[in-house]
Amino acid sequence: MTIAALSAVGFLLDGLVFHVSIFAADGCGTGDPAPLCAGAGTLAMWALPWIGPGLAAVASPVLGVAAWRRGRTPWAYLPVGTLLYVAGPVGAWTVVRA
What we know:
The protein is an all-alpha fold. The chain is built from three helices and no strands. It has helices spanning 2-22, 39-69, 78-97. The mean pLDDT is 81.
């Protein structure tokens, strides 16, 4: 239940980041050299907020189950998932600010 609640909050926040990133390119003109205004920059900005949660959703359970099978606590890998999750929006913000 805890992981489901954390995931729901994470995806809600990620949706908000995605919503903001959609409008980040509104100020781009035809001659704007910013990476955000290029095709690859726009695609990266739209994809990065979703790559982080995807990696976190895969890596944390896999690492947690592996730890549980070895007799260790799986909760130690929750911060790994958090770092992977945060990497997506931080990457999108880096593209927006570049």
